[in-house]
From TrEMBL:
Protein name: carnosine N-methyltransferase
Enzyme class: transferase
InterPro entries membership: CARME (IPR012901), SAM-dependent_MTases_sf (IPR029063)
Entry's family note: Belongs to the carnosine N-methyltransferase family.
EC annotation from Swiss-Prot or TrEMBL: 2.1.1.22
Keywords for the protein's UniProt record, in alphabetical order: Methyltransferase, S-adenosyl-L-methionine, Transferase
One protein family per Pfam: CARME
Domain of life of the native organism: Eukaryota
Length: 470
């Protein structure tokens, strides 16, 4: 039976909307019981802006849910929770903007706080969805045996525009696969409640904060409408090349197998499977795997989530609006893209996972996109690619050769080998590859389309074929 308490907010649908909009603000005061919510909203909030946001989000959510309820009563089609959450998000932002325009500057950073909370909401949901659950206390130190092992190790990372990372967190040689379902890994536990405890943040190394921001930017590249241009520049030529190289793949009893090392958030590997390949994306960065798993396995509708990827830098910005603009993801629901049976993500270090003898000659195609310069020793990558590609198979590569470890000494004064394109091709030839096609592709990488600074890469794009053994 409908009652006030049912609607606000014990009903499953309403509680989903309320949680999404209010949990990060109310933190430990959060509740779905109307009485407790009213007590919390009327209580003392030390910070004026947070107090405003807490009360405002309650008012807007109540209004939105009541409006939805009336619409349904009058036969209008129901809106999914994600749409209502987006409406509430927009309403709060609009209110804050209007307050500023009216000359009241007291809530100026309220908008920024709101955007950060919206990002936290997305991140918490991502972490909560990761099955089995994660114990983030283990994230604070070295990986422990018997659980998903995370190790901090010196490396620059993969950020093409910022060469200042000193460490990276990666999954240590663990393979996790999801075949249109979920990642599997050893059991670990995690409570999102702990994350709302602000003292926890003091333990998070800045380098990890930076990684999370970097993942948010990669989300735009792989899953945002704004990333379409860069996907057209990078993914399209690869997909067209695969399409033309394997014209009879649909007729074959077993579709050709394609491996995508350094798959990032998985979009390219997924698109390759949609072309009718068995496609495996390989990725070692824990953050990337959690995020791609969430988008691929847990998003139900296009534009389900809102994030603010551009709020973390004040540089090169035309306007505050540009910085504070929301991005809806995924621009196409993975289910509408078609998470096919032939698609999986394999988690672990490419060199460790694919140097197994069982992988030798297993792949009809290897596709690398902005990947082969992510190592200190590019020769090892080329050797491994040559081992896994079958005789007569192909290696398609798009790469600007930024060399992530350039000028960064490793733990034991390990150096980085930075070969020129000519030398890289020589090494590839040594490992049995012959160039069939080569051209330059002009593209950006995770650049903010509205920034005054956009790095462009004049990347080499090639198709090489592995010579048949005589
Ligand atoms: C520059 S990003 C490119 C991602 C994706 N290919 C794209 O074009 O958007 C390189 C990716 O390779 C991953 N990576 C780097 N070294 C790796 C390794 N040894 N094994 C697996 N993945 C690796 C990084 O975590 C990162 O996601």
């Amino acid at each position: 039976m409908e009652s006030r308490d049912h609607l606000f907010f014990s009903c499953h649908f309403c509680s989903e909307v309320w949680q999404a909009t209010a949990k990060n603000i109310y933190k430990t005061r959060f509740s779905t019981s109307w009485h407790s919510v009213v007590v919390a909203a009327c209580s003392n909030w030390q910070d004026r802006k947070i107090c405003y946001l807490a009360r405002s989000v309650l008012q807007v959510t109540v209004y939105t849910l009541w409006h939805e309820r009336n619409g349904r009563k009058h036969g209008e089609p129901p809106n999914p929770a994600s749409r209502l959450i987006q409406r509430i998000d927009k309403q709060i932002r609009d209110q804050l903007i209007v307050i500023g325009l009216m000359g009241d500057r007291r809530y100026d950073d309220g908008l920024l706080i709101w955007c950060i909370w919206t990002n936290s909401h997305f991140i918490l949901n991502m972490l909560e969805a990761f099955e089995p659950s994660l114990d983030l206390s283990k994230h604070m130190g070295k990986g422990k045996t018997g659980v998903l092992s995370i190790e901090l190790q010196r490396m620059e990372g993969y950020d093409y525009s910022h060469k200042n990372h000193s460490a990276d967190t990666r999954i240590n040689n663990k393979t996790c696969e999801f075949d249109g379902s979920q990642l599997n890994h050893d059991h670990v536990s995690f409570s999102s409640h702990d994350l709302l405890d602000s003292s926890l943040q003091t333990h998070v190394p800045l380098v990890d904060v930076d990684k999370v921001r970097w993942v948010l930017r990669n989300i735009v590249r792989d899953w945002g409408a704004e990333g379409q241009t860069t996907r057209d520049e990078c993914h399209k030529p690869i997909l067209e090349e695969l399409d033309s190289l394997f014209p009879d793949r649909q007729k074959e009893s077993t579709p050709p197998a394609c491996l995508v090392p350094g798959a990032g958030l998985g979009r390219l590997a997924l698109e390759i499977s949609c072309l009718g390949f068995r496609s495996v994306g390989n990725e070692f960065l824990y953050y990337m795997m959690i995020c791609s798993s969430f988008i691929l396995n847990y998003t139900k509708v296009p534009d389900e989530w809102t994030v603010y990827p551009w709020i973390y830098t004040n540089c090169n910005s035309h306007s505050e609006d540009d910085q504070l603009r929301p991005i809806s993801i995924p621009e196409a629901g993975p289910s509408s893209v078609g998470v096919t049976k032939g698609f999986s993500m394999c988690c672990g270090d490419f060199l460790e996972v694919f140097n197994e003898s069982s992988q030798a000659g297993m792949w009809d195609a290897v596709v690398t996109c902005f990947f082969i310069d992510t190592t200190r020793n590019i020769i090892e990558y080329i050797e491994t690619i040559s081992t896994v590609v079958k005789d007569g198979g192909v290696w398609i590569n798009l790469e600007p050769l930024c060399y992530h470890f350039a000028d960064i000494l490793g733990l034991e004064n390990e150096i980085s080998i930075e070969l020129s394109l000519e030398d890289v091709k020589r090494v590839a030839s040594h490992y049995g590859f012959e160039i069939e096609k080569e051209r330059t592709i002009d593209t950006t990488y995770c650049a903010n389309p509205r920034s005054m600074q956009k790095n462009r890469y004049y990347s080499v794009f090639w198709t090489m074929r592995k010579k048949c053994a005589i």
